[in-house]
Design a protein that fits this description.
This protein is α/β, with parallel strands linked by helices. It folds into four domains: 5-124, Udp-n-acetylmuramoylalanyl-d-glutamate--2,6- Diaminopimelate Ligase, Chain: A, domain 1 (3-Layer(aba) Sandwich); 151-263, GAF domain (Beta-Lactamase, 2-Layer Sandwich), CATH 3.30.450.40; 290-429, 2-Layer Sandwich (Alpha-Beta Plaits), CATH 3.30.70.270; 436-528, Arc Repressor Mutant, subunit A (Orthogonal Bundle), CATH 1.10.10. It has helices spanning 5-8, 62-74, 93-102, 115-149, 154-165, 192-201, 244-284, 290-296, 331-340, 364-380, 396-414, 432-437, 442-457, 463-473, 478-485, 489-503, 510-528, and strands spanning 18-21, 32-35, 49-53, 79-82, 106-108, 168-173, 205-211, 214-225, 228-236, 307-317, 345-349, 352-358, 384-390, 394-395, 423-425. Strands 10, 11, 12, 13, 14 and 15 form a six-stranded mixed sheet that branches. InterPro entries: CdaR-like_regulators (IPR051448), CdaR_GGDEF (IPR041522), PucR_C-HTH_dom (IPR025736), PucR_C-HTH_sf (IPR042070), PucR_dom (IPR012914). Residues 8-126 form the Purine catabolism PurC-like domain. Residues 290-411 form the CdaR GGDEF-like domain.
Length: 529
């Protein structure tokens, strides 16, 4: 951006000069012109300066000539234009070779071209460019502010921004309630590292992005709301190279869009509160009035003939049993749900997220649920473990309550049954479903005490308890069980005999095995409480 050396060399008699080295550096920006006749001036250079010189002071010192190129390159000078002294018929090879190594432009000034023939037109153009830049920015700011104040929407905002910058503009949002202006199939999303950098710097960045399978130079300006990254405006240099004014205009545009995003966020938060209230009525009403629920639920696509599935999410610290009730209170998690299940209701219920989604009647939803679980787990990070209970497919408002209760029970028992993942379906609970329904029953406790009390009281080190649990876990295979316990098979047989004596359950009979197996399951529920 700014005036490049390539464009500057089209001005006045500068176009009669010749680039003799560092041709790859013609995209360097020129912001000022300086005449240098002694090398010591390098220490006072700013940057982006076009240096005019005759090299008279160091015409015979080849070491100083090579050093000068290195110092100018280090000082971020734009180029060195040389008008050879009358006793120097050509520019020294040492300068040319070193400049080519650094891609630092060296320009030959013919004898008939004076310094003023270069200095005046270049400085005049730089001054005019700055004046035009300020005018462009003020004009663009006025237009964008009017659009923002008149609430004309994100699409109109993007169209006018394209007109002002003369390049393609896309507006991307992290949230489904703020619509992006481009299909994701055309644009490769920003990486997590790029989003983090934008969030920290909170100003436009120049990066390369993929657009229609092509790498394109871009300016990406973050949209920040309440200190958080909500999306970005990207200007794609497909039609024209970016100008200095584009950075300033995009920064102004992102500030205005932050206000627009904030308005949409407030509107969404109000709508989400209504959705949460409706979900609580739907899930917890003791005497559910199907008619009133259906009338209220028209906007949420709740009907008496549709089948639904409920899901309940909670999160806890990975290295402890403690729950983190705040971790899932994040709009971005709700956004992930809505993106994958656009017809679903989602709200914060019972210190977690409840999702009610229409059922498709096939197993495809299982894959969607697994992907949804994986995405939310990835979002909250490895320091937390995500738990998900999934209810059965049930019909109508009353069916939703039933599916919710099933999901709640599945989530409650998830840790109890030591499931291999953090996600479980109600149908996978097995016998735990029955035991959990009877967990407050005196008969259940009496049965448990009859079978397990003696074993636990006579097994201070839990050796026998662990043995019988491992025995059932390995489907009663003696060799595998013994190997798992690191004991001899005869030792295992001795322990099993002792367990039979204490509990009165004969492990050679189906009834005896069933009684002990059920007692272990009841133990899991009892100790869970």
């Amino acid at each position: 951006m700014g005036l490049t050396l390539r464009n500057v060399m089209k001005l006045g008699k500068f176009n009669e000069c010749e680039v003799i080295a560092g041709h790859k550096g013609l995209s360097r920006v020129v912001e000022r012109v300086t005449i240098m006749e002694v090398p010591e001036i390098v220490q006072w250079l700013k940057n982006k300066e076009l240096i005019l010189t005759s090299l008279f002071a160091i015409k015979d010192d080849y070491g100083a000539q090579s050093k000068l190129i290195q110092e100018l390159y280090a000082a971020d000078a734009s180029a060195l234009a040389i008008k050879p002294f009358q006793f120097m018929d050509k520019i020294p090879d040492a300068i040319i070779d070193h400049a080519n190594e650094l891609d630092f432009p060296i320009i030959f000034i013919p004898d008939h071209v004076k310094y003023l023939d270069i200095l005046y037109p270049v400085m005049h153009q730089i001054f005019n460019d700055k004046v035009v830049l300020q005018e462009d920015v003020e004009h663009a700011s006025t237009i964008l502010r009017e659009i923002s104040l008149n609430n004309q929407g994100v699409d109109v905002f993007a169209e006018n921004l394209e007109y002002l910058i003369k390049n393609d503009i896309t507006i991307e949002s992290e949230f489904p309630y703020i619509r992006s202006t481009i299909s994701e199939t055309k644009v490769t999303p920003l990486s997590n590292d790029e989003i983090y950098e934008l969030s920290v710097l909170q100003r436009p960045l120049q990066i390369n992005r993929e657009y229609d399978d092509k790498t394109v130079a871009c300016i990406v300006s973050p949209i920040i709301v309440d200190g958080d990254y909500y999306g970005n405006i990207t200007s794609w240099s497909i039609n024209n190279e970016h100008l200095s004014s584009d950075l300033v205009i995009l920064e102004e545009a992102s500030t205005l869009l932050s206000l627009e995003f904030l308005k949409l966020k407030v509107k969404h938060d109000v709508a989400q509160q209504y959705e949460n209230d409706f979900m609580r009525e739907l899930l917890f009403s003791q005497n559910i009035r199907e008619r009133s629920i259906l009338e209220w639920g028209e906007k949420y696509n709740i009907t008496k003939d549709t089948s639904y599935i409920c899901m309940l999410f909670s999160a806890g610290f990975t290295d402890s049993q403690n729950k983190d009730y705040e971790k899932l209170k994040d709009d971005k998690i709700n956004a992930i749900v809505k993106k994958m299940l656009p017809d679903a209701l989602a709200g914060y219920i019972r210190n977690g997220i409840c999702v009610i989604t229409p059922a498709s009647g096939d197993n495809n939803l299982n894959h969607v649920f697994q992907e949804l679980y994986d995405r939310i787990q990835q979002f909250i990070g490895s320091d937390y473990t995500l738990f998900l209970g999934v209810g059965r497919q049930e019909t109508g408002p009353q069916g939703i309550q039933k599916s919710f209760q099933q999901a709640d029970q599945a989530l409650y028992l998830l840790e109890t049954i030591n499931h291999s993942s953090g996600m479980i379906y109600y149908d996978d609970l097995g016998v735990y479903r029955l035991i959990n329904l009877l967990r407050d029953s005196k008969e259940l406790r009496d049965f448990y005490n009859e079978k397990m009390a003696g074993l636990l009281n006579n097994d201070k080190k839990n050796e026998l308890f662990h043995t019988i649990r491992t025995y059932f876990h390995h489907n009663e295979i003696l060799k595998t069980t013994a190997e798992s316990l690191y004991i001899h098979v005869n030792t295992l047989k001795y322990r099993l005999k002792k367990i039979e004596e204490i509990t009165g359950c004969d492990l050679k009979t189906t009834e005896g095995k069933m009684n002990l197996f059920l007692s272990l399951k009841i133990h899991d529920i009892m100790t869970r409480e």
